[in-house]
Automatic annotation (TrEMBL):
CDD domains on file: Topo_IB_C, Topoisomer_IB_N_htopoI_like
Entry EC no(s): 5.6.2.1
Compositional bias segments (type: Acidic residues): 1-10, 258-267
Any GO MF annotation of the entry: DNA binding
Single GO cellular component term: nucleolus
The organism's place on the tree of life at top rank: Eukaryota
Residue span, DNA topoisomerase I eukaryotic-type domain: 435-888
Region (Disordered): 1-273
Phylogenetic placement of the source organism: Eukaryota, Fungi, Dikarya, Ascomycota, Pezizomycotina
Catalytically driven reaction(s): ATP-independent breakage of single-stranded DNA, followed by passage and rejoining
Gene Ontology terms describing biological process: DNA strand elongation involved in DNA replication; DNA topological change; mitotic chromosome condensation; nuclear migration; rDNA heterochromatin formation; regulation of mitotic recombination; regulation of transcription by RNA polymerase II; rRNA transcription
Protein name, as recorded: DNA topoisomerase I
Sorted UniProt keywords: Coiled coil, DNA-binding, Isomerase, Topoisomerase
Length: 918
DNA sequence: AACCCTACTTAGCATTTACGAA
DNA sequence: TTCGTAAATGCTAAGTAGGGTT
């Protein structure tokens, strides 16, 4: 082994600290084995738990890496300005970080660390995670267990697919035939296996489109055809409900377009259209009206001022505007109390001040603003806040009128004409100026995001189209006619120099089509996955370090759905990582084969997981961490995402790391859905729960989190109290039966009348008091309201006596409860109560209880898992359509309006066909 | 290979709207 | 009907990924 030092190596992947040897000798491998002979490895793939972390690993580095430009400074420093006091006291903050923060970030809309959720400084996370881990464990473990079986089926399936492919080579015919019937010009270019044709149309825009070649199921319209067979298939275009589906071709003139009549638009069903010759060309004609700019700044009224050192100051309007950016967001303590945010803001604020002649006091004397802490934005905040409240409380009619006016103003920008079709624009508004809110500990958070001027905006539009007029007195930066691009307008933002694009919305044909292709590509991976897996298993032992690293990375991406992990500019962005950019301190190894990942991923969301892995993977990671590597060094020092993706694309055209996430998410979902009990007779709520459970597993796989709101705990309690209340009511109702017919006790058995174990006497007393109180409140409120009305109508208000009289009802209720408690009997309520009626109410109550309990469980499970992201981006929507068909539940229960639009292609192409498979 | 440029998807939180219980 | 909450939508930041250039 010997030559362990790095200098004798070949060119480095990244020159950042320590590098591993290019080659691995057999002795190197053996050495790793020896050191870890004890203990039998657990079977791979089991997630052990989602547990705590201790600080150690994370803040060490500091000293070590001055090496390159990778200032890792922030790692040790952490964001928690607000919390650093606790840091030192080490007090048992114990228990839920969320809660803590809540209290700490007092009243603010979002706790500081929330967002950093994972990202908390280690000192806090240690305490905080403790109890969470318990929660998460079962889910994680379950998921991991299923994973093994899921993978097995994947391999089986892949083999089957390949076998099938061998037998029947030309497969995609179905569609082509069908289509050329319908569509004279359909001349779909056939293409052979991978790669071959790629280069041809590739260069165009660098967009190299993958073109899913899912043979057997390429034509999305296939099923539809089947349903409405042969001939012309001009059946009614499917209406909103997925129930009936049929036509493959849209009916002329019969527009789905609701409303404004003026223009009947025919829906474009791209999935029925012939395949494009060259899909790097996105359009041939494109018309639009440009973008909407932010409203100009409206100066504050004279009496609202920024204060400095206790005194109001005069500002140039430009400086005032910047001050309002800060003032308006005072409620977001999370930002406003962040020292980096303050620092960046203050720097920029001082710049405008300097540029605009500084601040003056009431007498026109210069005020030198040099300390942030002396600035007081409260008056500004209060002004905006009041305005906001006022706006909300305006009469409905007024609000409506305003909305109508706004809509009318925006209407021209809402849609564009894309190849002659009307398509919705996604974000036609240029982002307004403000303060940049970077996530995690972004070094530039708080920086002023400047107003975008037309001079910065480039317009992309068809050659023949009329170029939209820029606002009066302004010009566009440029106008171009690039039909390989899908954007209508673009500008560069000043904070990070990022490009911002105006594009079509998710329900437009281009986006839908792109979405479809994404999922087809992922489905296509099914055919290659077993070979890929076999190969990387083999390469885990390669003696070429680069290959071994690549294989290991592939393993992680495949099994744990890690993101690719492109390199980032560490000086100017928050420090987050993905697979290829994992660092020494993000991976902790526990013999014999447990790996603990702890790092901040996209959006600074924490990824914390303990996994058991193949022994070889464990050994490799150990090797990649071998001294002299230390904190701050890359684990995969001979691997970049580019290399990885290049390798992947050798298996399948267009295959990249991110496809694995789509594939694994959709595949997992499909497996889970298939396992669902088919037993019918479920209520919609129960079906939905099943669906959401599957969805949740996928979300967990993808580590999609959300912050549990300050309110969660309270809401949960409330909900549970409501459930208990209903249970109590149920019990009372049952007792009434005995009152009506004493024989019931015998008939139903004593058990029937037992009190739910959830309820105890103390609680009941409390609850009764609560009910009485509620009743009082209700009565009082009603009384007051009536009086108000009388006053308004110039009548004499009702006397207090009347209120007292009315409150007697509540008193009676109280007395009744007392009596019940004493006698252990409940008098039947209502007029002419019968056992039957009572039984009915019991049934009703039981139903309500069940619904609420489901809801409660669902919500608790979802507490910090965000289902939406995977539903929107990762789970093939056709799976959901099939689920709904199979379980006979409306698609609208699962997809919101926007999602139904976005996934229109899926809904219409699958219809009620339950045989579609991912 | 490293860098920059470009363009597109994915992501969580904020704000608005819809909806269900009272 | 009204109110308060949950769901839907809006917003924009933060990723991935590919190409070109040096």
């Amino acid at each position: 082994m010997s030559s362990a030092s790095s200098d004798d190596d070949m060119p480095l992947a990244r020159s950042n600290g320590h590098i591993s040897n290019a080659k691995i000798s057999a002795a190197d491998d053996r050495a790793l084995d020896k050191s870890a002979s004890r203990a039998r490895p657990a079977p791979p793939g089991l997630s052990i738990r989602n547990g705590p972390v201790d600080d150690d690993s994370m803040d060490v580095d500091a000293a070590t890496n001055g090496t390159k430009r990778k200032s890792r400074s922030s790692i040790g420093k952490a964001v928690n300005y607000k919390d650093d006091s606790d840091d030192s006291d080490g007090a048992p903050l114990a228990k839920r970080q969320k809660a803590n923060q809540k209290t700490e970030a007092d009243s603010d809309d979002e706790p500081i660390s929330k967002k950093k959720n994972g990202k908390l400084p280690p000192s806090i996370s240690r305490t905080s995670v403790v109890d969470e881990s318990d929660d998460d464990e079962p889910l994680g473990t379950k998921l991991a267990q299923r994973k093994a079986s899921i993978e097995k089926s994947a391999a089986k399936e892949a083999k089957a697919l390949q076998a099938k492919a061998k037998k029947a080579t030309p497969k995609k015919a179905i569609k082509d035939e069908d289509e050329s019937d319908d569509e004279p010009l359909a001349k779909p270019k056939k293409r052979l296996s991978n790669g071959a044709s790629a280069s041809a149309n590739k260069k165009a825009n660098g967009v190299k489109k993958e073109e899913p070649e899912s043979d057997s199921d390429a034509p999305i319209a296939k099923k539809a055809k089947k349903a409405a067979p042969a001939t012309k298939a001009k059946a009614a275009p499917a209406k909103k409900t997925p129930a009936k589906r049929g036509s493959a071709t849209p009916k002329k003139g019969k527009s789905e377009e609701p409303g404004d009549g003026e223009e009947e638009e025919e829906e474009y069903r791209w999935w029925d259209a012939p395949k494009k010759e060259d899909d790097s060309i996105k359009w041939t004609t494109l018309e639009h009206n440009g973008v909407i700019f932010a409203d100009p700044y409206k100066p504050l009224p004279k009496n609202v001022k920024l204060y400095y050192d206790g005194k109001p100051v005069e500002l140039h309007v430009e400086a005032e505007e910047v001050a309002t950016y800060f003032g308006a967001m005072l409620n977001s303590t999370h930002n406003v109390e962040n020292p980096v945010f303050q620092k960046n803001f203050f720097r920029d604020f001082k710049d405008v001040l300097k540029k605009t002649g500084g601040a003056k006091d009431q007498n026109g004397n210069k005020v030198d603003i040099k300390e942030f802490s002396k600035l007081d934005f409260k008056p500004i905040f209060e002004y905006y806040d009041a305005e906001r409240v006022a706006k909300k409380n305006r009469p409905a009619a007024e609000r409506k009128a305003e909305k109508a006016e706004r809509d009318a103003r925006e209407a021209p920008y809402m849609y564009c004409r894309w190849d002659g079709r009307k398509e919705k624009v996604g974000n036609m508004k240029v982002e307004p100026p403000g303060l940049f809110r970077g996530r995690g500990d972004h070094p530039k958070t708080g920086t002023v995001k400047k107003r975008v001027m037309p001079e910065q905006v480039t317009i992309n539009i068809g050659k023949e189209a009329k170029v939209p007029d820029p606002p009066a007195g302004h010009k566009w930066k440029a106008v171009q006619h690039d039909n390989k691009a899908t954007w209508l307008a673009m500008w560069q933002e000043n904070v990070n120099g990022n490009y911002k694009y105006v594009m079509l919305s998710a329900n437009s044909s281009t986006k839908q089509e792109a979405d479809f292709k994404k999922f087809e590509k992922a489905r296509n991976l099914k055919k290659h996955i077993d070979r890929i897996r076999k190969d990387y298993q083999r390469d885990l032992k390669s003696d070429v370090m680069a290959d071994r690293q690549r294989a290991t990375a592939m393993y992680l991406i495949d099994k744990f759905a890690l993101r690719a992990g492109n390199e980032k500019d560490t000086d100017n962005e928050a420090e987050t990582v993905g697979c290829c950019s994992l660092k020494y301190e993000h991976v902790t190894l526990k013999e014999p084969n447990t790996v603990i990942f702890d790092f901040l991923g996209k959006d600074s969301i924490r990824f914390y997981n303990e996994f058991t892995v193949d022994r070889q993977v464990f050994k490799n990671l150990k090797m990649f961490k071998k001294p002299p590597k230390e904190d701050g060094d890359d684990i995969f020092d001979r691997l970049t995402t580019t290399q990885l993706n290049k390798h992947l694309s050798s298996y399948m055209e267009g295959l990249t790391a991110k496809v694995f996430r789509t594939y694994n998410a959709s595949y997992t979902m499909s497996q889970l859905l298939q396992k669902l009990p088919t037993d019918k007779k479920m209520t919609d709520a129960e079906k939905l729960k099943l669906y959401n459970d599957c969805n949740r597993e996928v979300a967990i796989l993808c580590n999609h989190k959300r912050t549990v709101g300050a309110a969660h705990e309270t809401q949960m309690e409330k909900l549970n109290d409501r459930i208990k209340g209903l249970k109590y009511q149920k019990w009372r109702t049952k007792m009434m039966m005995i009152d009506v017919d004493p024989k019931m006790k015998k008939k139903k058995g004593a058990e029937y009348f037992e009190l739910d174990p959830d309820l105890d006497e103390t609680w009941i007393h409390e609850h009764q008091a609560f009910l009485v109180e509620e009743e009082r409140k209700k009565i009082t409120k009603k009384f007051e309201k009536e009086n108000e009305k009388r006053v308004a109508e110039k009548e004499r208000p009702l006397p207090e006596k009347e209120l007292k009289e009315r409150l007697k009802v509540a008193n009676e209720l109280e007395a009744k409860f007392k009596k019940e408690n004493k006698s252990k009997k409940v008098e039947a309520e209502g007029k002419s109560p019968t056992v039957e009626k009572l039984e009915n109410s019991v049934k009703k109550l039981e139903e309500r209880i069940q619904t609420l309990q489901l809801q409660s469980a669902d919500r608790e499970g979802n507490k910090e898992v965000a289902l939406g992201t995977s539903k929107i981006n990762y789970i093939d929507p056709r799976l959901s359509v099939v689920f709904c068909a199979k379980f006979n539940i409306g698609i609208e229960k699962v997809f919101s309006k926007t999602l139904r639009d976005k996934f229109k292609w899926a809904i219409e192409s699958v219809g009620d066909d339950t045989t579609w498979e991912f």
